[in-house]
Amino acid sequence: MAGKLFGTDGVRGVANQYPMNVDFASKLGMACGLEICKNRGRVAIGRDTRISGEMLQSSLTAGFLAAGVDVVLLGVLPTPAITAITSELDVDMSVMITASHNPYYDNGIKLIDADGEKFSDEVTSKIETLVAEGNFELSHEKLGRIIENKNAVDLYLQKLNAIVEDERPLRGLKVVLDCANGCFAGIMPQVFKNLGAGVISLGNDPDGYNINRDCGSQHPEKLYETVKGSHAHVGIAVDGDGDRVLVCDDNGTKIPAEALIAFLARYLKDNGKYKGNAVVSTVISNTAMERYVKSLGFEYYSVKVGERAIIAKMKEVGCSLGGEESGHIVAGDYCKSGDGMINALLICLALVKSGKKMSEIFPEFKFDPYVFVSVAVKDRETVHKAAASAEVLGAVAKAEEKMAGNGRVVLHPSGTEPKIRVWVSGSDEKIVKESADMIINEVKKFQEEK
Protein backbone atom coordinates (compact mmCIF):
# COMPACT_ATOMS: atom_id res chain seq x y z
CA MET A 1 0.00 0.00 0.00
CA ALA A 2 2.89 2.39 0.71
CA GLY A 3 3.18 5.23 -1.76
CA LYS A 4 -0.20 4.54 -3.42
CA LEU A 5 -2.65 6.66 -1.45
CA PHE A 6 -0.90 9.99 -0.91
CA GLY A 7 -0.49 11.98 -4.10
CA THR A 8 1.04 15.39 -4.76
CA ASP A 9 -1.38 17.07 -2.35
CA GLY A 10 -2.41 14.52 0.26
CA VAL A 11 -4.85 11.63 0.02
CA ARG A 12 -8.31 12.00 -1.51
CA GLY A 13 -11.39 9.96 -2.25
CA VAL A 14 -15.16 9.77 -2.00
CA ALA A 15 -16.53 10.32 1.51
CA ASN A 16 -17.48 7.11 3.33
CA GLN A 17 -15.49 5.05 0.83
CA TYR A 18 -11.94 3.87 1.45
CA PRO A 19 -9.71 5.71 2.14
CA MET A 20 -12.01 8.60 3.08
CA ASN A 21 -13.82 6.64 5.75
CA VAL A 22 -13.88 6.40 9.53
CA ASP A 23 -11.60 3.38 9.72
CA PHE A 24 -8.78 4.85 7.63
CA ALA A 25 -8.99 8.28 9.29
CA SER A 26 -8.78 6.88 12.82
CA LYS A 27 -5.84 4.65 11.88
CA LEU A 28 -4.14 7.59 10.19
CA GLY A 29 -4.56 9.58 13.40
CA MET A 30 -3.00 6.76 15.42
CA ALA A 31 -0.11 6.34 12.98
CA CYS A 32 0.70 10.05 12.86
CA GLY A 33 0.26 10.36 16.61
CA LEU A 34 2.73 7.59 17.37
CA GLU A 35 5.20 8.37 14.58
CA ILE A 36 5.16 12.19 14.29
CA CYS A 37 3.83 13.63 17.56
CA LYS A 38 6.71 12.53 19.79
CA ASN A 39 7.93 15.97 20.85
CA ARG A 40 5.04 18.17 22.00
CA GLY A 41 2.32 15.53 21.85
CA ARG A 42 -0.06 17.98 20.12
CA VAL A 43 -1.69 18.19 16.71
CA ALA A 44 -3.93 20.85 15.14
CA ILE A 45 -6.83 19.93 12.83
CA GLY A 46 -8.70 22.21 10.44
CA ARG A 47 -11.30 21.48 7.77
CA ASP A 48 -13.20 23.02 4.91
CA THR A 49 -16.97 23.41 4.68
CA ARG A 50 -17.99 20.09 3.07
CA ILE A 51 -20.46 17.91 4.99
CA SER A 52 -18.05 14.99 5.56
CA GLY A 53 -15.48 17.19 7.27
CA GLU A 54 -16.88 16.74 10.76
CA MET A 55 -17.00 12.95 10.36
CA LEU A 56 -13.36 12.74 9.29
CA GLN A 57 -12.34 15.27 11.93
CA SER A 58 -13.98 13.15 14.63
CA SER A 59 -12.30 9.99 13.36
CA LEU A 60 -8.86 11.57 13.09
CA THR A 61 -9.32 13.08 16.52
CA ALA A 62 -10.21 9.70 18.02
CA GLY A 63 -7.08 8.19 16.51
CA PHE A 64 -4.82 10.93 17.83
CA LEU A 65 -6.43 10.81 21.29
CA ALA A 66 -5.97 7.03 21.43
CA ALA A 67 -2.28 7.57 20.64
CA GLY A 68 -1.99 9.94 23.59
CA VAL A 69 -1.90 13.13 21.54
CA ASP A 70 -3.77 16.32 22.43
CA VAL A 71 -5.88 17.62 19.54
CA VAL A 72 -6.29 21.36 18.88
CA LEU A 73 -9.46 21.86 16.83
CA LEU A 74 -9.24 24.92 14.58
CA GLY A 75 -12.66 24.56 12.95
CA VAL A 76 -13.26 25.75 9.39
CA LEU A 77 -10.07 27.41 8.18
CA PRO A 78 -8.39 27.88 4.78
CA THR A 79 -5.43 25.64 3.99
CA PRO A 80 -3.07 28.65 3.63
CA ALA A 81 -4.14 29.86 7.06
CA ILE A 82 -3.16 26.55 8.62
CA THR A 83 0.25 26.49 6.91
CA ALA A 84 0.76 30.10 8.05
CA ILE A 85 -0.02 29.62 11.74
CA THR A 86 1.05 26.03 12.48
CA SER A 87 4.49 27.10 13.70
CA GLU A 88 2.80 29.35 16.29
CA LEU A 89 0.46 26.68 17.69
CA ASP A 90 3.06 24.63 19.61
CA VAL A 91 2.13 21.44 17.76
CA ASP A 92 4.10 18.61 16.16
CA MET A 93 1.99 18.79 13.00
CA SER A 94 -1.31 19.96 11.55
CA VAL A 95 -3.93 18.19 9.47
CA MET A 96 -6.17 19.87 6.90
CA ILE A 97 -9.33 18.00 5.90
CA THR A 98 -10.21 19.13 2.40
CA ALA A 99 -10.60 18.02 -1.19
CA SER A 100 -9.70 21.53 -2.36
CA HIS A 101 -11.50 22.22 -5.67
CA ASN A 102 -13.32 18.86 -5.83
CA PRO A 103 -17.12 18.52 -5.35
CA TYR A 104 -18.67 18.08 -1.90
CA TYR A 105 -18.89 14.28 -2.02
CA ASP A 106 -15.10 14.01 -2.17
CA ASN A 107 -12.80 14.76 0.71
CA GLY A 108 -9.11 14.58 1.47
CA ILE A 109 -6.44 14.84 4.14
CA LYS A 110 -3.31 16.96 3.94
CA LEU A 111 -0.50 16.43 6.44
CA ILE A 112 1.52 19.50 7.45
CA ASP A 113 4.69 19.50 9.54
CA ALA A 114 5.46 21.68 12.56
CA ASP A 115 6.92 24.43 10.35
CA GLY A 116 3.85 24.65 8.14
CA GLU A 117 5.33 22.65 5.25
CA LYS A 118 3.76 19.63 3.58
CA PHE A 119 5.34 16.31 4.51
CA SER A 120 7.73 14.67 2.07
CA ASP A 121 6.88 11.57 0.05
CA GLU A 122 9.17 9.57 2.33
CA VAL A 123 7.22 10.53 5.45
CA THR A 124 3.78 9.93 3.93
CA SER A 125 4.94 6.58 2.55
CA LYS A 126 6.05 5.52 6.02
CA ILE A 127 2.74 6.65 7.52
CA GLU A 128 0.84 4.65 4.88
CA THR A 129 2.83 1.54 5.78
CA LEU A 130 1.99 1.97 9.48
CA VAL A 131 -1.71 2.36 8.64
CA ALA A 132 -1.63 -0.77 6.46
CA GLU A 133 0.08 -2.84 9.14
CA GLY A 134 -2.28 -1.56 11.84
CA ASN A 135 -0.08 -2.70 14.72
CA PHE A 136 -0.50 0.22 17.12
CA GLU A 137 0.82 -0.04 20.66
CA LEU A 138 -1.69 2.02 22.61
CA SER A 139 -1.65 2.78 26.32
CA HIS A 140 -4.61 2.79 28.70
CA GLU A 141 -2.85 5.51 30.70
CA LYS A 142 -1.59 7.89 28.02
CA LEU A 143 -4.61 9.44 26.32
CA GLY A 144 -5.05 12.81 24.66
CA ARG A 145 -7.44 15.69 25.27
CA ILE A 146 -9.42 17.96 22.94
CA ILE A 147 -8.61 21.67 22.92
CA GLU A 148 -10.62 24.21 20.92
CA ASN A 149 -8.80 27.18 19.39
CA LYS A 150 -11.26 29.91 18.45
CA ASN A 151 -8.57 32.47 17.59
CA ALA A 152 -7.07 30.75 14.55
CA VAL A 153 -8.67 33.10 12.00
CA ASP A 154 -7.51 36.19 13.91
CA LEU A 155 -3.99 34.77 14.16
CA TYR A 156 -3.95 34.27 10.40
CA LEU A 157 -5.34 37.73 9.63
CA GLN A 158 -2.49 39.30 11.58
CA LYS A 159 -0.24 38.18 8.71
CA LEU A 160 -1.91 40.80 6.52
CA ASN A 161 -0.11 43.52 8.45
CA ALA A 162 3.05 42.68 6.49
CA ILE A 163 1.25 43.50 3.23
CA VAL A 164 -0.98 46.46 3.97
CA GLU A 165 0.81 49.73 4.66
CA ASP A 166 -2.18 52.08 4.44
CA GLU A 167 -5.32 51.81 6.57
CA ARG A 168 -7.73 51.63 3.61
CA PRO A 169 -5.56 51.05 0.51
CA LEU A 170 -8.39 49.69 -1.66
CA ARG A 171 -10.57 52.80 -1.52
CA GLY A 172 -12.43 53.32 -4.79
CA LEU A 173 -11.93 49.74 -5.98
CA LYS A 174 -15.03 47.73 -6.86
CA VAL A 175 -14.40 44.00 -6.72
CA VAL A 176 -16.48 40.84 -7.13
CA LEU A 177 -15.34 38.03 -4.81
CA ASP A 178 -16.38 34.41 -5.29
CA CYS A 179 -15.53 32.36 -2.21
CA ALA A 180 -16.64 28.97 -3.66
CA ASN A 181 -18.89 28.38 -0.62
CA GLY A 182 -15.67 27.31 1.05
CA CYS A 183 -13.21 28.30 3.75
CA PHE A 184 -12.88 31.97 2.78
CA ALA A 185 -16.64 32.59 2.93
CA GLY A 186 -17.19 35.31 5.50
CA ILE A 187 -13.46 36.02 5.77
CA MET A 188 -12.33 37.42 2.41
CA PRO A 189 -15.29 39.77 1.74
CA GLN A 190 -14.92 41.32 5.18
CA VAL A 191 -11.16 41.77 4.78
CA PHE A 192 -11.63 43.57 1.46
CA LYS A 193 -14.41 45.75 2.90
CA ASN A 194 -12.20 46.66 5.86
CA LEU A 195 -9.50 47.74 3.42
CA GLY A 196 -11.87 50.11 1.66
CA ALA A 197 -13.07 48.10 -1.34
CA GLY A 198 -16.64 47.95 -2.56
CA VAL A 199 -17.48 44.25 -2.53
CA ILE A 200 -20.02 42.07 -4.31
CA SER A 201 -19.92 38.57 -2.81
CA LEU A 202 -20.66 35.28 -4.57
CA GLY A 203 -20.37 31.71 -3.26
CA ASN A 204 -20.50 33.02 0.27
CA ASP A 205 -23.17 30.81 1.88
CA PRO A 206 -21.77 27.31 2.52
CA ASP A 207 -24.23 24.59 3.51
CA GLY A 208 -21.95 21.54 3.46
CA TYR A 209 -23.07 20.47 -0.01
CA ASN A 210 -22.49 23.50 -2.24
CA ILE A 211 -18.71 23.88 -1.92
CA ASN A 212 -17.28 24.46 -5.44
CA ARG A 213 -20.74 23.85 -6.95
CA ASP A 214 -21.19 26.20 -9.93
CA CYS A 215 -18.93 28.71 -8.24
CA GLY A 216 -15.35 29.46 -7.28
CA SER A 217 -12.22 29.14 -9.37
CA GLN A 218 -13.47 25.96 -11.05
CA HIS A 219 -16.77 27.45 -12.23
CA PRO A 220 -16.20 31.18 -12.76
CA GLU A 221 -18.96 31.85 -15.30
CA LYS A 222 -21.15 33.76 -12.82
CA LEU A 223 -18.10 35.74 -11.70
CA TYR A 224 -17.46 36.91 -15.27
CA GLU A 225 -21.10 37.87 -15.79
CA THR A 226 -21.31 39.73 -12.48
CA VAL A 227 -18.15 41.73 -13.14
CA LYS A 228 -19.47 42.86 -16.52
CA GLY A 229 -22.99 43.54 -15.24
CA SER A 230 -21.87 45.52 -12.20
CA HIS A 231 -19.03 47.42 -13.92
CA ALA A 232 -16.58 46.14 -11.32
CA HIS A 233 -12.86 46.78 -11.68
CA VAL A 234 -11.82 43.18 -11.10
CA GLY A 235 -13.23 39.74 -10.32
CA ILE A 236 -11.55 37.23 -8.01
CA ALA A 237 -12.44 33.63 -7.25
CA VAL A 238 -10.83 31.11 -4.91
CA ASP A 239 -11.43 27.38 -4.53
CA GLY A 240 -12.97 25.51 -1.62
CA ASP A 241 -9.90 25.45 0.62
CA GLY A 242 -8.57 28.80 -0.57
CA ASP A 243 -5.14 27.85 -1.90
CA ARG A 244 -5.70 28.88 -5.52
CA VAL A 245 -6.90 32.08 -7.15
CA LEU A 246 -8.57 33.00 -10.44
CA VAL A 247 -8.78 36.60 -11.66
CA CYS A 248 -10.73 38.29 -14.45
CA ASP A 249 -10.42 41.84 -15.74
CA ASP A 250 -13.10 44.55 -15.88
CA ASN A 251 -14.52 43.00 -19.06
CA GLY A 252 -14.99 39.62 -17.39
CA THR A 253 -12.06 38.10 -19.27
CA LYS A 254 -9.98 35.53 -17.41
CA ILE A 255 -6.33 36.43 -16.88
CA PRO A 256 -4.05 33.38 -17.10
CA ALA A 257 -2.20 32.55 -13.88
CA GLU A 258 1.16 32.78 -15.69
CA ALA A 259 0.37 36.40 -16.55
CA LEU A 260 -0.57 37.12 -12.92
CA ILE A 261 2.72 35.62 -11.71
CA ALA A 262 4.71 37.84 -14.07
CA PHE A 263 2.60 40.87 -13.09
CA LEU A 264 3.18 40.30 -9.37
CA ALA A 265 6.90 39.72 -9.87
CA ARG A 266 7.23 43.05 -11.69
CA TYR A 267 5.09 44.89 -9.11
CA LEU A 268 7.00 43.53 -6.12
CA LYS A 269 10.38 44.16 -7.74
CA ASP A 270 9.50 47.73 -8.82
CA ASN A 271 8.41 48.48 -5.25
CA GLY A 272 11.53 47.04 -3.60
CA LYS A 273 9.66 44.07 -2.12
CA TYR A 274 11.30 41.23 -4.02
CA LYS A 275 13.98 38.98 -2.61
CA GLY A 276 16.39 37.40 -5.04
CA ASN A 277 16.08 37.73 -8.80
CA ALA A 278 14.24 34.63 -9.97
CA VAL A 279 10.73 33.40 -10.71
CA VAL A 280 9.73 29.73 -10.44
CA SER A 281 6.99 28.00 -12.41
CA THR A 282 6.31 24.51 -13.77
CA VAL A 283 6.86 22.55 -16.94
CA ILE A 284 3.24 23.14 -17.96
CA SER A 285 3.45 26.92 -17.82
CA ASN A 286 3.20 28.56 -21.22
CA THR A 287 6.56 28.79 -22.99
CA ALA A 288 6.01 32.52 -23.65
CA MET A 289 6.07 33.17 -19.90
CA GLU A 290 9.71 32.18 -19.67
CA ARG A 291 10.72 34.61 -22.41
CA TYR A 292 8.71 37.45 -20.86
CA VAL A 293 9.99 36.93 -17.31
CA LYS A 294 13.55 36.89 -18.59
CA SER A 295 12.88 40.14 -20.50
CA LEU A 296 12.02 41.74 -17.14
CA GLY A 297 15.48 40.84 -15.88
CA PHE A 298 14.54 37.78 -13.80
CA GLU A 299 16.06 34.35 -13.91
CA TYR A 300 13.48 31.67 -14.65
CA TYR A 301 13.26 28.14 -13.26
CA SER A 302 10.88 25.43 -14.43
CA VAL A 303 10.06 22.51 -12.11
CA LYS A 304 7.73 19.52 -12.10
CA VAL A 305 4.04 20.11 -11.50
CA GLY A 306 2.96 20.69 -7.89
CA GLU A 307 3.19 23.36 -5.25
CA ARG A 308 5.70 21.41 -3.20
CA ALA A 309 8.23 21.39 -6.06
CA ILE A 310 7.71 25.11 -6.60
CA ILE A 311 8.31 25.96 -2.95
CA ALA A 312 11.41 23.74 -2.79
CA LYS A 313 12.94 25.53 -5.80
CA MET A 314 12.03 28.95 -4.42
CA LYS A 315 13.93 28.11 -1.25
CA GLU A 316 16.88 26.74 -3.21
CA VAL A 317 17.33 29.85 -5.37
CA GLY A 318 16.15 32.33 -2.72
CA CYS A 319 13.30 34.09 -4.50
CA SER A 320 9.98 35.61 -3.53
CA LEU A 321 7.53 34.24 -6.07
CA GLY A 322 6.51 31.05 -7.81
CA GLY A 323 3.34 29.50 -9.15
CA GLU A 324 1.57 27.40 -11.73
CA GLU A 325 -1.24 27.67 -14.25
CA SER A 326 -3.77 26.08 -11.86
CA GLY A 327 -3.80 29.28 -9.79
CA HIS A 328 -1.48 28.13 -7.02
CA ILE A 329 0.72 31.19 -6.51
CA VAL A 330 3.20 31.34 -3.64
CA ALA A 331 4.24 34.82 -2.51
CA GLY A 332 6.96 33.48 -0.25
CA ASP A 333 7.51 36.64 1.78
CA TYR A 334 3.88 36.65 2.90
CA CYS A 335 2.71 33.02 2.95
CA LYS A 336 4.10 29.49 3.14
CA SER A 337 1.85 28.02 0.48
CA GLY A 338 -0.59 29.11 -2.22
CA ASP A 339 -2.94 31.65 -0.64
CA GLY A 340 -5.91 32.85 -2.68
CA MET A 341 -6.69 35.83 -0.47
CA ILE A 342 -3.15 37.13 -0.07
CA ASN A 343 -2.50 36.87 -3.81
CA ALA A 344 -5.82 38.58 -4.53
CA LEU A 345 -4.88 41.37 -2.16
CA LEU A 346 -1.44 41.84 -3.73
CA ILE A 347 -3.01 41.95 -7.21
CA CYS A 348 -5.54 44.57 -6.10
CA LEU A 349 -2.88 46.70 -4.42
CA ALA A 350 -0.84 46.60 -7.62
CA LEU A 351 -3.92 47.48 -9.67
CA VAL A 352 -4.77 50.50 -7.53
CA LYS A 353 -1.17 51.72 -7.63
CA SER A 354 -1.04 51.41 -11.43
CA GLY A 355 -3.99 53.78 -11.90
CA LYS A 356 -5.06 51.67 -14.89
CA LYS A 357 -7.86 49.27 -15.71
CA MET A 358 -7.07 45.56 -15.63
CA SER A 359 -7.98 45.41 -19.32
CA GLU A 360 -5.35 48.08 -20.01
CA ILE A 361 -2.64 46.09 -18.23
CA PHE A 362 -3.38 42.62 -19.58
CA PRO A 363 -2.34 40.79 -21.62
CA GLU A 364 1.23 41.72 -20.72
CA PHE A 365 2.59 39.25 -23.27
CA LYS A 366 1.25 37.05 -26.06
CA PHE A 367 0.91 33.37 -25.23
CA ASP A 368 2.39 30.68 -27.44
CA PRO A 369 -0.10 28.20 -28.94
CA TYR A 370 -0.84 25.38 -26.50
CA VAL A 371 -3.12 22.44 -25.82
CA PHE A 372 -3.94 21.38 -22.27
CA VAL A 373 -6.35 18.47 -21.89
CA SER A 374 -7.19 16.33 -18.84
CA VAL A 375 -8.07 12.84 -20.07
CA ALA A 376 -10.32 11.04 -17.59
CA VAL A 377 -9.64 7.36 -16.88
CA LYS A 378 -11.53 4.92 -14.68
CA ASP A 379 -9.27 4.96 -11.59
CA ARG A 380 -5.88 6.04 -10.26
CA GLU A 381 -4.37 2.61 -10.92
CA THR A 382 -5.17 3.07 -14.61
CA VAL A 383 -3.57 6.54 -14.43
CA HIS A 384 -0.21 5.06 -13.47
CA LYS A 385 -0.44 2.14 -15.90
CA ALA A 386 -1.38 4.32 -18.86
CA ALA A 387 1.28 6.92 -18.11
CA ALA A 388 3.94 4.19 -18.00
CA SER A 389 2.75 2.25 -21.04
CA ALA A 390 5.04 1.84 -24.06
CA GLU A 391 2.35 3.14 -26.41
CA VAL A 392 1.73 6.40 -24.52
CA LEU A 393 5.42 7.03 -23.83
CA GLY A 394 6.13 6.33 -27.49
CA ALA A 395 3.61 8.98 -28.49
CA VAL A 396 5.27 11.44 -26.12
CA ALA A 397 8.67 10.72 -27.67
CA LYS A 398 7.30 11.24 -31.20
CA ALA A 399 5.68 14.51 -30.09
CA GLU A 400 8.96 15.76 -28.66
CA GLU A 401 10.65 14.88 -31.93
CA LYS A 402 7.99 16.83 -33.83
CA MET A 403 8.52 19.87 -31.58
CA ALA A 404 12.27 19.77 -32.40
CA GLY A 405 13.26 21.96 -29.45
CA ASN A 406 10.66 24.66 -30.21
CA GLY A 407 8.34 23.86 -27.34
CA ARG A 408 7.57 21.52 -24.47
CA VAL A 409 5.62 18.30 -24.12
CA VAL A 410 4.40 17.15 -20.71
CA LEU A 411 2.49 14.02 -19.68
CA HIS A 412 1.34 14.48 -16.07
CA PRO A 413 -0.51 11.76 -14.15
CA SER A 414 -2.71 13.57 -11.64
CA GLY A 415 -1.82 12.89 -8.03
CA THR A 416 -5.34 13.65 -6.77
CA GLU A 417 -7.80 12.64 -9.52
CA PRO A 418 -8.18 9.76 -12.04
CA LYS A 419 -6.91 11.91 -14.89
CA ILE A 420 -3.87 12.14 -17.13
CA ARG A 421 -3.00 15.68 -18.15
CA VAL A 422 -1.52 16.24 -21.58
CA TRP A 423 0.17 19.60 -22.15
CA VAL A 424 1.92 20.79 -25.29
CA SER A 425 3.13 24.32 -26.01
CA GLY A 426 5.29 25.76 -28.77
CA SER A 427 5.68 28.31 -31.53
CA ASP A 428 3.96 26.31 -34.31
CA GLU A 429 0.21 25.92 -33.65
CA LYS A 430 -0.26 23.11 -36.19
CA ILE A 431 2.54 20.99 -34.73
CA VAL A 432 1.34 21.67 -31.19
CA LYS A 433 -2.17 20.41 -32.00
CA GLU A 434 -0.97 17.36 -33.92
CA SER A 435 1.43 16.42 -31.11
CA ALA A 436 -1.21 16.77 -28.42
CA ASP A 437 -3.82 14.81 -30.38
CA MET A 438 -1.36 11.96 -30.90
CA ILE A 439 -0.75 11.58 -27.15
CA ILE A 440 -4.40 12.04 -26.18
CA ASN A 441 -5.51 9.37 -28.63
CA GLU A 442 -3.00 6.86 -27.22
CA VAL A 443 -4.20 7.51 -23.66
CA LYS A 444 -7.84 7.02 -24.72
CA LYS A 445 -6.94 3.88 -26.67
CA PHE A 446 -5.17 2.40 -23.62
CA GLN A 447 -8.24 3.16 -21.49
CA GLU A 448 -10.59 1.48 -24.00
CA GLU A 449 -8.43 -1.62 -24.34
CA LYS A 450 -8.20 -2.14 -20.58
Descriptors:
Alpha-D-Glucose-1,6-Bisphosphate, Chain A, domain 3; five-stranded mixed sheet; alpha/beta; 3 domains; six-stranded mixed sheet; 450 residues; single chain; TATA-Binding Protein
Describe the structure.
With 450 residues, this protein is of the alpha/beta class. It folds into 3 domains: 11-156, Alpha-D-Glucose-1,6-Bisphosphate, subunit A, domain 3 (Alpha-D-Glucose-1,6-Bisphosphate, Chain A, domain 3, 3-Layer(aba) Sandwich), CATH 3.40.120; 163-361, 3-Layer(aba) Sandwich (Alpha-D-Glucose-1,6-Bisphosphate, Chain A, domain 3); 370-449, 2-Layer Sandwich (TATA-Binding Protein). It has 15 helices and 18 strands. The radius of gyration is 22 Å and the shape is globular.
Query: What is the CATH class of the largest domain?
Result: Alpha Beta
Q: Approximately how much helix is present in the residues?
A: 25-40%
Largest sheet: 6 strands, mixed
Count of β-strands: 18
Please state roughly what percent of the residues sit in beta strands, choosing from under 5%, 5-15%, 15-25%, 25-35%, 35-45% or over 45%. Answer: 15-25%
How many individual domains?
3
Give the CATH H-level superfamily of the largest domain.
Alpha-D-Glucose-1,6-Bisphosphate, subunit A, domain 3
Helical stretch count?
Answer: 15
CATH third-level topology of the largest domain:
Alpha-D-Glucose-1,6-Bisphosphate, Chain A, domain 3
Give the strand order of the largest sheet, numbering strands 1, 2, ... along the chain. 1-5-4-2-3-6
> Roughly what is the average pLDDT, rounded to an integer?
94
CATH architecture annotation of the largest domain: 3-Layer(aba) Sandwich
Given the helix and strand composition, which structural class is it?
alpha/beta
Uncertain stretches: none
State the separation between the terminal residues, measured CA to CA: 22 Å
Provide the gyration radius in Å.
22 Å
Shape: globular
